[in-house]
Amino acid sequence: MSENLLEIRGLHKSYGNVEVLKGVDCTMKQGDVVSIIGSSGSGKTTMLRCINMLEEFQGGSISIDGEEIGYEMAGAQRRRKREKEIARQRALTGMAFQQFNLFPHMSAVGNVMLGLVKVKKMEKDAARTVSEKWLDRVGLLSRADHFPGQLSGGQQQRVAIARAIAMNPRLMLFDEVTSALDPELVNEVLQVIKSLAQDGMSMLLVTHEMRFAYEVSNRVIFMNQGLIGEEGNPRDMFHKPKSERLAEFLKTSSFA
Amino acid sequence: MGYTLNFAAVWRSFDDLLLGLGLSLVLAFGAILMGAVIGLGVAFALMAKNRLVKRPAAIYVSIIRNTPILVLVLFTYFALPQLGVRLGKIESFVFTLAVYSGAYLAEVFRSGLLSIPPGLREAGLAIGLTETQIRTSIIAPLMFRNILPSLSSTIISLFKDTSLAAAIAVPELTFETRKINVETFRVIETWMVASCLYVFTCSTLAALMRALERRLALPR
Amino acid sequence: MDMAHFLDVLWLARWPILKGIGVTLSISFLAICCGTVLGVFVGLALTYSKAPLRWIVRGYTDFIRGTPVLVLVLASYYVLGTVGLDLGPFQAGILALAVFCSSHVGEIVRGALQAIPKGQTEAAKAIGLTFPQTFAYVLGPQALRQVVPAWVNTAAEMVKASTLLSIIGVAELLLRTQELISRTFMSLEFYFFAGFLYFIINYAIERLGRYVERKIMVPS
Questions:
Q1: Can you tell me the distance from the alpha carbon of A192 to that of A207, in angstroms, rounded to the nearest whole number?
Q2: For chain A, what percent of residues have pLDDT higher than 70?
Q3: How far, in Å, CA of A223 to CA of A8, rounded?
């Protein structure tokens, strides 16, 4: 049993012949806020999706609180766990997507309630109370009965974050949550994430917002060609990059 | 041309026409219910990765779409008994129309499923829903909304196709009309009333489907 | 079922069957041609004509589309005789199919014309084209690309609908088949064979349609 919240060992992932992750190692402790940066195609989103078993992976292991995610050994044979088990493990992590992915046929509160009712088997009334609490937390209690089509992109993303957090996950995964937003809507979403971080929520973020990564995280990981290129605290990473690659990347990104 | 319209004879047999129309509707709904089950199964098969599942489904759809329904109706009723499958007129027709509509509904369902963004399934997975829960709570309600317009036109054209049951003497609306035509010789009146009944029913079905569409429309 | 015996019978029956295919193809061809010409006018009237004419044409298409083809065929056959227009079943049937075809083509043309963004007409006006010029050089060619796939579909529908003429005694492929069956009692074999022939014809039309569609696609 390790004391690490998240432990990734030798993670390998390929699509056909293309190797996307070439043996990634990474650990996180309770309360850590880790940003993953890197150019597109470096494998950062894929890594995040593996943690939530939205992608299969061919080698290595991922554990949350010491519990191995997705696969188990049957003798010498590595095999995928049963779907029910994987569904339960997915609920250990919460995920917010680039495209929000709100269920368009449910109101904001309905979106948040769905997992509580179907997965946590809560009573509807209790689920509603919890959902409203979280909608209030992201500043959208007044929009609880609005449908996704009636909300702005920033509001939709905040509902999506509330939907994930309401499941009380051990770790929140944010996958480029501001990339699909109009510039003027980015800030309201970042504020919500920041305040969750201040409350001690453990989170792993893939982001292109360098300024935000710098401010919010206590550790930054730079991914490069399917491997971790460099990692450290944000101050060192952004001001004193050790590798040529990271220096190059920072120069072309918006961080000034 | 010296023909004066006289509807009296048609009105006397109007009950028969209405009974015929009732049977037409029963045939259509029986076929659609069975056809929807077939169509949903075939739609999933069409989207399967396994070629052994996909090919047969595609062949079924292609054969049905390229064969006249009258040939299928006659085949089931007159030819299948040779193979020992003996069905009554009505059962035989409903069965044929169900198999026929299955191919069209499969296409309707397939495009409905394809129009759902894959991200919604992933969002469901991410909060810990099982595949079955995702299908019932997310995919099915969204697909149903998506397909309502094309479902409406499929239902209407199936209702019209029930007229072919007249070819095997099922006493539905067209069969009754032809009977009254032959008995009364009020040719124009009979066919006028019958077409009006068909047109009226079709527009009622369309209006009902539009109302359902409006009721289920998502606020935006 | 004895294959060799069936092939013998089939060889003896080759002329009636070939004649039947010929009649089926001529019915379909004539109905498609007449129906398309009429349908283009219907489509133009639905899109561009002023109120009273547009209502009449709208009423016509809605009425035709709400009536089963079989009812159109039977009505055309019985009614035309009564009003003194003594057409044979062949002509009456083609008339019914052409009318049916025209309502479909009309809707297709209207849909294609209305799908063209308003900006196209405005841009054409801005460079000084008259309406006929706009139609000939800008709207028409764009609409055509939309129309072709749906039109090919309608053509296949017409081949399938031509089977309905067997019911009023036109000796097309299906009626020839039924005559053969009543002499040979080989219903399974001959219905299957007829279905196969229809499948071949429609499959060929479908393929041809895809080919034409690819040919006229705007590169993008």
A1: 15
A2: 98
A3: 14
Note whether A62 and A138 are within 8 A (CB).
Answer: no
Q: For residue A238, is pLDDT > 70?
A: yes
Chain B residue at shortest CA distance from C66: B199
Interface of chain A toward chain B, CB-CB under 8 angstroms: 52-54, 83-84, 87-88, 90-91, 93-95, 97, 99, 101-105, 114-115, 118-119, 146-147, 149-150, 160, 163-164, 167
Mean pLDDT of chain A: 91
- Contact present, B94 and B34 (Cβ < 8 Å): yes
SS3 B161: helix
Here the tokens at position A206 are 């893939």
φ, ψ for residue A6, nearest 5 deg: -125, 135
* ipTM of predicted complex: 0.89
Question: What's the pLDDT at A254?
Answer: 63
Element spanning A77, H or E = strand A77-80
Ranges of each domain in chain B: 8-216
Fill in the amino acid letter for C176.
R
Q: Which of C160, C18, A192, A136 is nearest to B164 (CA)?
A: C160
Q: Which residue has the tokens 């065929």?
A: C73
List Cβ neighbours of C135 (8 Å cut-off, separation of 6 or more).
none
Could you identify the residue written with the tokens 């569904």? A87
Q: Which of A191-200, C78-87, C174-183 has the lowest average pLDDT?
A: C78-87
- The per-residue pLDDT for B11 is 86
Q: Cα–Cα distance between C207 and C160 in angstroms, integer?
A: 16
Q: Is B122 exposed, middle or buried (0-12, 13-18, 19+ CB in 10 A)?
A: middle
Tell me whether C199 touches chain B (CB under 8 Å). Answer: yes
Q: Is the minimum CB–CB distance between B204 and chain C shorter than 8 Å?
A: no
- Assess B74–C contact: CB distance below 8 Å, yes or no: yes
pLDDT at A1: 45
Average pLDDT over residues B100-107: 95
In 3D space, the residue among B122, B119, B143, B142 whose CA is nearest the CA of residue B131 turns out to be: B122
Q: How far apart are CA A142 and CA A162, in angstroms?
A: 14
Overall pTM surpassing 0.90 (yes/no): no
Q: How confident is the model over A74-108, as pLDDT tens digits?
A: 888 889 998 888 988 998 999 999 999 999 999 99
Chain C: residue nearest B83 by CA?
A: C188
Instruction: Tell me the residue type at A98.
Output: Q
CB contact under 8 A, C83 and B202: no
Q: Tell me what the mean pLDDT of segment A219-240 comes to.
A: 91
Class of domain B8-216: mainly alpha
- Residues from chain C that touch B174, judged by Cβ atoms under 8 A, are 68, 70-71, 74
Both tokens of residue B44?
Answer: 């999933």
